[in-house]
Amino acid sequence: MKEHNIDCMKHRKHTHISGVDVEMITAEKGSCIVTIKDAYFSRGVDVSGNRTDGYFLEFEEDVMPMVCNSTNRKRIANNLMIEKKITPLESRNIGNWIGLKINLKFDPNIKMMGKITGGIVVDSIKILPDLIIDSDNFNAVKDAVTNKGYTLDQVRSKYNLSKECEALLLSK
Predict the structure, then answer these.
(1) Neighbours of 13 (CB within 10 A)
(2) Residues 111, 139: one domain?
(3) Closest to 159 measured CA to CA, from 117, 115, 128, 113
């Protein structure tokens, strides 16, 4: 079957999600929010033909696994600490990451081996545009939507929610 008018990177050979994949998912769906199904460290994993030691994430959604660099591990731990109100030590235990929803974004400025290649960044929890909120505010808004029966329209009347924030709230 012939395909026309598609991204030239769609059918390339690769074993793990990349920035290009995240960019395509975001263009199609508006965001790339995924749920961590498994988080682990492993040695000698085949990452597109290269044996790699590192941290890996697998997702509940139908996307490839992800190699998780130190910056993204720190962001995931920080998001978990805010969302679950746990200690930094507990948030760095990758076993606690299971079930966490994260928003993946493509950053064209990411460097690999000294060259700008673009790559995946895990987004920080945000509610109001341009404001990274503290755990009390995020949990209050999340609680209003998930536990107290407030609709998204009611929350919008009090907060100026970004599309990204609405996606996070709807994914909870």
Answers:
(1) 6
(2) no
(3) 128
User: Which tops the pLDDT comparison, 40 or 169?
Assistant: 40
Residue 123 contacts residue 105 (beta carbons within 8 Å): yes
The radius of gyration of the chain from alpha carbons, rounded to an integer in Å, stands at 17
Gap between the Cα atoms of 35 and 57, Å rounded: 10
- The answer to whether residues 41 and 53 belong to one domain is yes
What are the φ and ψ backbone dihedral angles of 57, each rounded to 5 degrees?
Answer: -120, 140
Q: For residues 109 and 153, state if they share a domain.
A: no
Q: Note down the domain range covering 168.
A: 125-172
pLDDT of residue 130: 36
CB 45 within 8 A of CB 54: yes
Same domain flag for 161 and 105: no
